[in-house]
Amino acid sequence: MNPLIKHYNIMKFIHYALFFVLISLISCTSPVLFDSPQPPDTRDLNKFPRYYRGVYQNTDDSSLLYITKNEVISEYWVEFEIAKKEIDTSSVYYAKGNYLYDKNNNEKYKVVLRNDTFYGEWHYSDQLFSLSPSHVLRRYKGHLFLNFEMDGGWEVQKLSLDSENNLKLSWISEKEELEKLKEITFVEEVKDENDHITKYIAHPTKKDFNTFLEEKSFSAGDHYIKIK
């Protein structure tokens, strides 16, 4: 077992795992999109620079981030344990050999039975970014910018390395940053049929984007230590 993994009872573990994934997706979502990949008037990269590639460990939850030549992948594990008698009477799970099976979706989890308790590990990986027409990579002022094509615009995240090759993956999340952006450039308000704002789309020039960067933007994010 990975010593960095947290422990959960399996009956809570599945809910935790789904909740974790959902929260991760929500927390990384920016309140503002851009009208085009950022920064404007900057060439696309066809691969990640070599000095960015490697394996990084999240300082908060010990998940791993892999940066390869053309993609970014996140990976994490969750340990769980459950009494054998709970599996024997469960309508959802059953044990066979060294695995627990979920009857609802045929998922299986490798386990070890010790003292009438099953111990196991759940693994999850997610491809966060893969170079393509809808995932555009650009470099500017010593940072990498990951552009994700969304419905109606582009979400932008920033990758930065410090002097010790540790990494920060950051995004726009604070309302204050949106207000800063409105002061710098035109930000379109997209509304639904009930006149509620559903999204903001910024239309910066390259100069505008540079000004925004100098305003301590992309303040929310995750920190990683390079381990390989």
State the end-to-end distance.
Answer: 20 Å
Indicate the structural class: alpha+beta
Categorize the overall geometry.
elongated
What fraction of residues sit in β-strands? over 45%
Number of domains: 1
A few lines on this structure:
The chain has about 230 residues and is α+β, with helices and mostly antiparallel strands.
Write a structural description.
The chain is α+β, with helices and mostly antiparallel strands. The protein has one domain. Helices cover 18% and strands 46% of the residues. Strands 1, 3, 4, 5, 6, 7, 8, 9, 10, 11, 12, 13 and 16 form a 13-stranded mixed β-sheet that branches. Strands 2-15-14 form a three-stranded mixed β-sheet. Strand 10 and strand 11 form a beta hairpin. It is elongated and about 65 Å long. It starts with 5 loop residues before the first strand and ends with a strand. The N terminus is likely disordered.
Key features of this structure:
228 residues, alpha+beta, 13-stranded mixed beta sheet, 3-stranded mixed beta sheet, 46% strand, disordered N terminus
Topology of this structure?
Layout: E1 6-9, H1 10-27, E2 32-34, E3 54-58, E4 64-67, E5 71-83, H2 84-88, E6 93-96, E7 99-102, E8 108-114, E9 117-130, E10 135-140, E11 143-150, E12 153-161, E13 167-171, H3 175-184, E14 187-191, E15 197-202, H4 206-213, E16 220-226
Parallel strand pairs: 1-5, 2-15
Antiparallel strand pairs: 3-4, 3-16, 4-5, 5-9, 6-7, 7-8, 8-9, 10-11, 11-12, 12-13, 13-16, 14-15
